[in-house]
Amino acid sequence: MNYFYDLLINLSDDVPYNFFEWNKNDDIMHLKKIPVFKINTNDLKNFLSFNIKVGEEFLKDIENKTEGYDKNLIKYMALFTDNNNSLVLEFNEDGKAIARSKLLLEEQLDLMEIAYSLKRITINYKKLDLINQNDELRQIKELKHFLNLEIKTLYENNNLSKLRYLYNEVFNQDNKDLLSIYKDLKKEINKQFNENHLKLFDIIKLSYKHLSI
Fold this sequence. Notes:
By secondary structure, the protein is α+β, with helices and mostly antiparallel strands. The protein has helices at 41-49, 56-62, 105-115, 138-156, 160-171, 178-189, 195-212, and strands at 3-9, 29-38, 50-54, 66-68, 73-74, 77-81, 86-91, 97-101, 125-130. Helix 4 (138-156) packs antiparallel against helix 6 (178-189), helix 4 crosses helix 7 and helix 5 crosses helix 6.
């Protein structure tokens, strides 16, 4: 069995984060070694796009083969590559992928250097449900989540004056209907990222700054 050594992973139960989206507060794992398999590009795309389930035979092959620097063994985990991209998957006892991680850029490049010498294998798996793909960057998703929480709180607290101010800044017009303001702002926040998101964030951030003085 082939192994890849000394790597960091950032497991997600949804779409894995790209290396430039990793956060210092994430639960980063430092692996001493992990079994690596070269598969075809179509299979790797399926692994990235779908929840999958592998067979019992493959689980037995990788059982307790991944080791962390804390000397703990991870029961079912493997690294997959097609020579260009890569993905770490963790599986449960039934063979279903439960978490996934991409690699840091430097480690991805190191993997590419050895991937050409690996023999491509075929893994028996089943595609389950499609993973909810989101092309937005993690930071943008977090910003939208923050804005949605903020206007929801203002709406529930009947803070009409602050909502009217936000509404005027975004739409350049006045509105005195609380529910209408809330719905329009929420709709705007959930649109594709634009300058209004930053405008709302700056105003809200400034209001908290004034509050703390």
